[in-house]
Hints:
Elements: H1 6-11, E1 15-20, E2 23-28, E3 32-40, E4 42-47, H2 54-69, H3 76-79, E5 86-88, E6 95-99, E7 106-114, E8 117-126, H4 133-142, E9 144-145, E10 157-159, E11 162-164, E12 171-179, E13 182-192, H5 204-217, H6 221-225, E14 228-237, E15 240-249, E16 258-265, E17 276-282, H7 299-310, E18 314-315, E19 337-339, E20 348-352, E21 363-366, E22 375-378, H8 383-386, E23 393-396, E24 399-405, H9 411-418
Antiparallel strand pairs: 1-2, 2-18, 3-4, 3-12, 4-8, 5-6, 6-7, 7-8, 9-11, 10-11, 12-13, 13-17, 14-15, 15-16, 16-17, 19-24, 20-21, 20-24, 22-23
Amino acid sequence: MSAQTPRLQALFENTRTVCFGRFLMQVPAAATVVYGPAEADTPIRRLPGEGARVTDHLARRLADIENERDFLLKDDIPKLPLFGKVLDGAVPGQKIVFGSKNQVGYTIDSYVPVGDDLFVQHLNSVLPQHDRIATINRIASHLRLRAGDEVPAEPGSCIDGGFIPLDQKFERVTVGIRLKEFPDVHFSVEVHKNQERLAESGSLELLREQAKNDAAQRGLGALYARIQILRRQTRQLGAWSGPDIASRTPAHGNETEAHEFRFQSLGAVNDPLQPLLDVRLDSGVKDDRKASVKPSITDEEAIALWDGLIGSIRIRPGGVAKPATAAARARVPLASLAATGNPCPETGWWQCSESGRVDGGTRRHFIAGEPLPPAVFLGEPRLWHKLGASLPTHTAATIWQLVAYGAPDNTTAHQAIRGSDEGEPHA
């Protein structure tokens, strides 16, 4: 770590621990922590103090959806049977609403009240045959509030004001550090879990080479050549390894000189403890615009601050659970939802969201993996139906909700669970 100036020594005299994703970092005690975009299988954001205003947010979204209806053709509506519908989620007070902006798939917004806060999950371009409701409910049913200074001991991921004690396919967390001693300095960290391959095309060295070529093509090659490299090294940070470049860009036009530091490691494939890591420091920032004011920090202080912050990034103890055996697989939570055409995620009793005369009853038993059927509605019986004619029927896509586990081991159990469908015809 670089030698600290008196200003930096005073800054790091007292520190506190910040949790982001499955990782920790030490920051000056008086620093402001700003969480940015996050993803927990779906993009998710927190609205502090809005937990009691689900109805207001839902009403605004429904108004927007009605405007989206103007962009749908007459033939689009049957392809999107959930358009404009609101479903209850797995959490008390949770509402899931469906819109569409592209005539092809749904936009899904899930409003999850947790204590005084409201968390909003959002998905775009979800094809009707793809079930994402179970994913939304899985996260919502495990999400809990987390105090700003809380460092959870159990496996899971820290997001803004929340904690999700689950393994997730998609994980992304961004966090920024702001310092009143250096108000123009922005320090940020992004961790993004890789999937089946690494983002080689976004490597730092490749991006720098592209920037150099772009500058030359725009006649700014001389300006690019004036960028001063303060330090260039390969940094080993735990399991991460990658280029660490500290530079100062020259003033140009309306832009002031400014520091640009960056470390990037592509991480490993499908490893929540070695995601893509992107760390940045910029000086001269005002109103989120770089190179807008003269930097308040010297080169030596910038390097010392960078080393002090980035060097403290580490895995949170207990960040990931030990692999579970197949026998210990967690059940899909009761009240989980799944749409017609998708594989049944859990063996048990499922109730459709439609009311009326449903063939076979509104509650049905399905085996995990079998396709969930549409609801088949029976018409009102007439005299000729009593004389043997078949009832008219029509089918409609529906949402099935898990209401009980288990198999239909005997007729009594079958009747007991379907008993609430009084007056409905049975197959």
